[in-house]
Amino acid sequence: MLKNKKILLAVCGSIAFYKAYEILSILKKEGADVYVMLSDGALKFCSALGFEALSEHQILTSASENWQAGLNHIAYAKMDLILIAPASVNTINKLANGICDNVFMQTLIASTAPILIAPAANDKMINHFSTQKSFEFLRQSGVKFIDPVYKMLACKDMGKGALADNQTIIYEVKKAISEAKFSGQKVVISGGATTENIDEVRTITNLSSGKMARALADAFYYAGADVTLIASFECENTPYKTLKFKSSNELKNTLKDELKDANLLVMAAAVSDYIPQISAKGKLKKEDLGEIWQLNLKQNIDILASLNKFKNVKKIGFKMETEAKTAKSKAKQMLLDKKLDAVCLNLLDQNVKFGSDVSEVTFITKKSERIIPLDSKQNIALSIVNLASEL
């Protein structure tokens, strides 16, 4: 989603300057066209040469500005996004007050691009009344901030002043550069496999990895949604709310709680069709079960159908099939039977498998069918978000 987006990475004088190298590298791997600008303060910690080794463009500094070569504050102001990381208190306060006393500040003030600021400074400097007033003014003016984190700072003080981790910064870059189609809306996404106990050591489950659900949660977050991901798999370092479930009953109860104030449900969880009739206490012993073990199963509740009482929540279901001839008709029947707004049909084949990183989806509504061709699950998720915005 960052492919060919022009991003200016503006690096301030901070002991966290070295993290900008990795941020630059990650942005380039994501396909962004990254330019770099160093403040006079940053040049006290590093040289432009290190960034030149990673960037495909000349590095803009007070010493390198060259109008004939197009290396100037007007050219570098024409971006899709400006990311100030790390951002010093000096730069934050100057920007809030319109102080334009060097090339770095001239570039920021000449730009009409969205600005995303990741502060890194001593917590007392960040909490100073003048800095807090600058934060408030800049937020009111549309500038977005990535909050610093609490840890031991370079000065050995403990406080909330360290630069946010790179994964969080990249999340916020993608969000800032995306169209906020779901701003102000709560989107609930379920993902992963349910696990039903046979006894206290044996279970019935399936091969769902949850990768599609995670990609969808990311994509809806980028689109401005208030995301809740209900997952059976581990979700670390997410900028949105995550809740865990194990059994289908846990999933159902969590969904009912979360849907009370939701706008959209994307039901990507793989729920067991059948569950053990009785879950035994302890461990069933092999010598008691005998050579042939007959396990009695009962049909599971239809969680998605049970959520029809949430009339104000739009619902998207997922349907996995293996028979191409009947897959589409079954998906359409699911759409009607469960009163859904859309169904995402997956057809397992030699390319699309459980746990794979790619997928192919047919997005089916009562009025249309849209094929999202084979692609990464991240790109499939972005397409689903765009289609969901039309429901």
What's the gist of this structure?
With 391 residues, the protein is of the alpha/beta class. The protein has helices at residues 19-29, 48-52, 89-96, 103-110, 123-126, 129-140, 166-177, 211-222, 248-258, 286-289, 303-306, 324-337, 377-388; strands spanning 6-11, 33-38, 81-87, 115-119, 144-145, 149-152, 158-162, 186-191, 196-197, 203-204, 226-231, 241-244, 264-267, 274-276, 297-299, 314-321, 342-347, 358-364, 369-376.
Descriptive report:
- The protein is elongated, with a radius of gyration of 25 Å.
- The longest helix has 14 residues, at 324-337.
- α1 links the parallel β1 (6-11) and β2.
- It is α/β, with parallel strands linked by helices and 391 residues long.
- The strands form 5 sheets. Strands 12-11-8-13-16-17-18-19 form an 8-stranded mixed beta sheet, with helices on both faces.
- The protein has helices at 19-29, 48-52, 89-96, 103-110, 123-126, 129-140, 166-177, 211-222, 248-258, 286-289, 303-306, 324-337, 377-388, and strands at 6-11, 33-38, 81-87, 115-119, 144-145, 149-152, 158-162, 186-191, 196-197, 203-204, 226-231, 241-244, 264-267, 274-276, 297-299, 314-321, 342-347, 358-364, 369-376.
- α3 (89-96) crosses α6.
- It contains 13 helices and 19 strands.
> What is the overall pLDDT average?
93
Report the span from N to C terminus. 22 Å
Total helix count? 13
The count of DSSP E runs of length 2 or more, i.e. the number of strands, is: 19
Strand sequence of the main sheet, in spatial order?
Answer: 12-11-8-13-16-17-18-19
Mass-distribution shape: elongated
